[in-house]
Amino acid sequence: MSSVAARRVLVYAGVAVVAAYCLAPFYWMVVSAFRRPQDQFDNSILPRHWSVENFTAVFGGSNGFDRALLNSLVVAGTTTLLTLLIGTATAYALARLSFRGKNMFLGLIIATTMFPGISQLIPLLKLFTDLKWINTYQAMVVPSLGFALPLCIWLLTTFFRQLPFELEQAAMVDGCTRGQAFRRIIVPLAAPGVFTTAIITFMAAWNEFIIALSMTTDKEMQTATVAISKFTGVSGQDQPFGTQMAAGVIVTVPLILLVLVFQRRIVAGLTAGGVK
Q1: Fewest Cβ atoms closer than 10 Å to its Cβ: which of 54, 185, 209, 223?
Q2: What is the mean pLDDT of the chain?
């Protein structure tokens, strides 16, 4: 075997090992979801008896998982929309406008990501209690927005800087205002970066747990991640591993499909500007 072929085999083997390591937890979650409740501690590679009882139990009884899924969709969708609206405008201003302290302002935005989210939980809880925001969507959207905006601004600022300023100048020569040039020329060209930011923000907000757990006491306002942590099992006395695995599959599969369908756009957005 030549050195080139051996190197290629090693690369493929390394990729296979990494893929197996990353996919093993998801595989075990899927397999466990299809086990019968009485077989949930069986360690066989495949279920001895396939069953959808766990999936039925997820939406049955008093779990309220359908409402929790709706809450997660509202919170994640609202967070993503607001992040894009605010972050796109801010990133464009930082990329195109010249003003004193611009780099310091961008540095401060990035510095906010250095603080652990858990350290902000108690102040936010106190603030939202005073505002009577507990058990409301805004109590979950606002903190998620604060965590998502720095990443959005950083990614899009870098992306906008790669676009030539002559595009806007040509549009304004043709009669567009700066705002019209931004909406009609720059935003469509920046679609890969905007789309990538939207996917990352949605996934982060969809998977968020600690904020949703702390800001909600009403079962009707709990998100899917919080609802999963409070499952009681199929019979109300069993360990809830089976239903939690089934709910995990239900929550995870849409994200996987989203990434698989739009993987080219995501890669294009992450690598934009890397090669001129």
Answers
A1: 209
A2: 85
Phi/psi of residue 50, nearest 5 degrees: -70, 140
CA dist list (Å): 269 to 188, 190, 196, 217, 263: 13, 8, 6, 38, 10
Phi, psi at residue 94, to the nearest 5°?
-70, -30
Residue ranges of domains in the chain, CATH in brackets? 64-230 (1.10.3720.10)
What's the rounded Cα separation, in Å, for the pair 13 and 234?
41
End-to-end CA distance of the chain: 37
User: Using N-to-C axis directions, what is the helix angle for 65-96 and 191-207, rounded to 10°?
Assistant: 140
Strand partners, 21: none
Which residue's entry shows tokens 């902000």?
A: 120
> Six-digit token pair at 138?
């805004």
Q: What is the reported pTM?
A: 0.85
